[in-house]
Amino acid sequence: MATTGKVSGIIANLVIVKVDGPVSQNEICYINHVGVKLMAEVIRIGSKNAYIQVFESTRGLKTGSGVEFTGHMLEATLGPGILSKNFDGLQHDLDKMDGIFLQKGDYTHPLEVDKLWSFKPLAKIGDEVEAGSWLGEVTENWIPHKIMVPFAFTGDFKVKEINAVGEYKIYDTIAVLEDKNGQEHKVSMVQRWPVKIPIRTFKEKPRPFDFLETGIRVIDSLNPIVEGGTGFIPGPFGTGKTVLQHALMKQAEADMIVVAACGERANEVVEIFAEFPKLDDPRTGRKLMERTTIIANTSNMPVAAREASVYTAMTIAEYYRSMGLKILLLADSTSRWAQALREMSNRMEELPGPDAFPMDLPAIISNFYARAGFVYLTNGKTGSVTFIGTVSPAGGNLKEPVTEATKKAARCFYSLSQNRADSKRYPAIDAVDSYSKYLEYPEFIEFVEKTVAPNWVDNILKAKNILIRGREAYEQINILGDDGVPINYHEIFWKSEIIDFVILQQDAFDKIDASTPIERQKYMMEKVLALADTHFEFENFEEVNPYFKRIINVFKQMNYSEFQSEKFKKFESELQDIVKEKAVVEVEQS
Question: What's this chain's function (predicted)?
Fold first, then answer.
């Protein structure tokens, strides 16, 4: 018999329920409120009370209201039809809801129940299968969507029946499986899975090593991320976090994109909904929305729903990873998620950590980031979830708890600089303060040496060293004045500026410069580093500035030209002529 209870206390979205039976941690329940059922989740259990967080506004709720417990956790509905959808954090289809504002208790089915899908079997009668095995597939937009043995199934099964090629609805039985006890289990195209439990239907999850090309030079050429890797983008307001994520969505080497708009301002979320259907996908020539799913919770929605949205997004990403796809998951912003955790923790009067965040915040963030990764599936295929989140530290303080906790979990750190944003040097990633720990992984070094260039990692470290030396020279020039330092200080600074203007900065509005293939990045990096190794001769410091500005201008024209085109080669030849003007030719001693 299902457990029931009565509301005995209300603290905003935290409701205390006196229960008449057993309840479980993270169990879902419904509060009866004036004929409307409000969805909630158990977050703490006492001797006779359950503390629940309500996913709706609790305005008007009174003590004594009845509560019904369901016996299951918050679950995502997984099946064909998730792509191109706009969901809230509980996976309700926002496009099916009426009116501008969400109504209490207005829940919608995330999938199209009556739509017919063209099913093609991949398994045959007599095959041995297990949880996550592919039984068949349907075409979702243009992506092959695998119909799998439900993740909740344990043990081995034998395919007893499987449907032939044809059109079926998502809840139609498409296969019958038989377990070792001879019991039959019907399987449809839909399954449900608790969002706070990782999907582990894979054979192996090694340390990721495969370079993920993003087309963004400051990432690929200086702080690379891998397929199945993790990264985060902290930065103050106005430094371009959302714009950078949009560039990653369009250009990164991924089969599918999941966007978790977690607690962003309502106007920003509306912009995503309005702009995304219009965006062209440069990778496929179709619309970007065709391979995108958006999970949206604005900052003025209940904190509990905001906390659920990141888990729903990750579960959907893991589901598609089990199909052998490369998934890019972007969360904007995980700070709002952490603030939701803080609010509920404070309402339960738990012992606070730094800045009143929960004491276990680092563990919560680490466990979530650990769900990303590169996996080998049971059938030998591979899949991945690459997770990049943004953090919005108050006042740009990168020492605050959320940023510090995320630093311990994420392998890539892309620090956005207010100074770079103010001087219009976009993307505003500070290449010196940022880092990629994948540059220390032997398997990654081996991979890029084979696929990109034998000296690729050495070139990255060399470029970073030039940027650091350039920054030091700039500080000395600022303190002592232009004529107070040797000429070579100016030369060192301007060589670092070449890397900044040519490699780090990118024009998102230019068709060619917006995305740079890795082959072109390698070519330009080698050309810039060769120039940095060149010794120049100047009579005074006043010659240095205009000379290097000419070099930078030609380099930028090369960036705007088709790679290896006549125009590109013309600027390359012009660059060589400029370099010869001041370059010192070293004569070898015999």
Answer: Produces ATP from ADP in the presence of a proton gradient across the membrane. The V-type alpha chain is a catalytic subunit.
Alpha helices in 121-238 (DSSP H): 217
User: First vs last Cα of the chain: how many Å apart?
Assistant: 95
Cα–Cα dist 214/246, whole Å: 11
Residue 249 has pLDDT above 80, yes or no: yes
Residues 140-180: pLDDT tens digits?
999 999 999 999 999 999 999 999 999 999 999 999 999 99
In degrees and rounded to multiples of 5, residue 26 shows phi and psi of 70, 15
Give the span between the Cα atoms of 45 and 2, in whole angstroms.
17
pLDDT digits (tens, 9 = 90+) for 64-102: 999 999 999 999 999 999 999 999 888 989 888 776 566
Give the CATH number of domain 202-436.
Answer: 3.40.50.300
Whether 417 contacts 390, CB under 8 Å: no
Q: What backbone torsions phi and psi does residue 499 show, to the nearest 5 degrees?
A: -60, -40
The conformational region for residue 132 under phi > 0 = left, psi -120 to 50 = alpha, else beta, is left
Report whether the peptide linkage leading into residue 150 is cis, meaning its omega lies within 30 degrees of zero: no
Q: Among 2.40.50.140, 2.40.50.100, 3.40.1650.10, 3.40.1190.10, what is the CATH number of 117-189?
A: 2.40.50.100
